[in-house]
Amino acid sequence: MKPNILYLHCHDAGRYVQPYGYAIKTPSIQDLAEQGILFRQAFSAAPTCSPSRAALVTGQWSQCCGMLGLAHRGFSLSDYSHHINHTLRRAGYATALSGFQHVARAPFADPVDVGYDEILAEDEAFETVTAAAEAYVQRKHDKPFFLSVGFIAPHRHREDFWTLYPPDDDRYLRPPDTLPDTPETRKDMALYHASVRSTDTCMGRVLDALDRGGLADNTLVICTTDHGIAFPEMKSNLTDHGIGVMLILRGPGGFTGGKVIDGMVSQIDIFPTICELLGIDAPAWLQGRSMMPLVRGEQEEINEAVFAEISYHAAYEPCRCVRTKRWKYIRRFDGRDKPVLSNLDNGPSKAYWVGHGWHEKEVREESLYDLVFDPLERCNVIDRPSLATVAEEMRGRLDDWMRENEDPLLQGPIPLPEGARVTDPDDYSPSGGWPEHVTPPT
Q1: What domains lie within the chain, and their CATH numbers?
Q2: How far is 297 from 293, CA to CA, in rounded Å?
């Protein structure tokens, strides 16, 4: 029988988990990495929720699959038959969902439209999602299954985080690399630690259920997240802080042994990888490349460059980027010279930055970063004369990609779909307006 596929995914975790070297307790994800393959240079196709998830499950850039904004705000796939569920069902798979999916509005009018045979749980609660997934895994199965298990954590819950645990001791941790080390940012990061640890605990329970059922050896586990963590200049940004994601695969076909791969991969490469692993025809619409040559050790790279984009999150903020091993080039298309604060969830770190003038910080139309000497992408060298040739080459790469994919930005501002909801880019909160405890700019 073909291998089962367990797709474990969460919100807003980036690479801030234990096996990527951070002092964050995620023992289940660590064990998975030591048993499988960890991709250290994995990237989402977008630093926003629905577009990144849609790119993964369709194998298409979000501009090509139609998901240019958030599903719960009125955006959708152009063709739901492109969801990987439908390809797998034609290959003889049963498909099921427990928890969060975010590429279609829930509750579904008809789950079959999205390709799920069963919706086990649409609740956001840790226990509901986890228990439903455990029960499904332990059933008797007469055909292989694709089980998607989605956790809303470590997404922020209001200004804190979804969590099962109390916060870690903030005296002994550090905030994200984009932020200063202050009491406010440490307390904020302590809650993130607790939230991602809660997610890890629940993922571990589902993995344990595989073991109890004797299914682990014949199940491909895909563990990933949608984009960077919900802190300033991370989520909703095209730096590696926003598009860099954890990606760990374990299972048959060579995904074993605690191997680490440094080749650049995009989440759109997951769908074609599954097709090659299963020995099924890859749909014509796929735009990614199979990662199997990396897994087999035949190549060190499958992508000369990876791309990512943002159009709508809470607010409209059209940006595109291209990344090579050495360089990152980002271009904005909205004409703004200030950050779009409403595209980041509210929280103490955001309030700290705004209290020190984040809303007045200049944003450039173009950015170029040297990832060897500036891996944090803090020094924009787009105007450096000695790098004019590099800048022009990266511009050309991005222009070619946009033309090849008929990017709607080439025709001007992207219109909002009928009935969709968007926030003013000058607001503070994703939901609109400015909270009482934050002083708006004059």
Answers
A1: 4-295 (3.40.720.10), 306-411 (3.30.1120.10)
A2: 6
